[in-house]
Amino acid sequence: MMKEMVIEKNRTLNWVGKIHAVSLFVAALGILILYFSGVPGFPLIPPGPIILGIAGILVFTLASRWKWIPFISVLAGLFISFGTIIEGSIWGRLTNISDFAPFVGTLIQGLGLVVAVITGLIVLAKAFRPIETV
How far is CA 119 from CA 18, 20, 26, 114, 116, in A? Predict the structure, then answer.
């Protein structure tokens, strides 16, 4: 038996792909909550929600046609995740429950990013798995 990469035509986005796209939007929502609650250090127009929103739209609209699209969205999720960790104020916001809006925004952003990266890797693994042919 021979294993080869098969490109399926007319594929639809499966439930894992839909969860992946929605989790990107959830992470973007978390960043917007942080921005509108007045967390210091944000630029006038925060790039995080734009990056994650575009990645989510690409997954919803193009991932069923081009199987490499989730790679871009996983990279976007990792980029925002590493930026958040390197910036460092995430830990203070997660431990200060009394400042509720930044706490909730950080929690939503973090959960959205974790789910986005995990489900994105699952979507990629399924898209590029070898299919046995007879």
Answer: 9, 5, 13, 9, 5
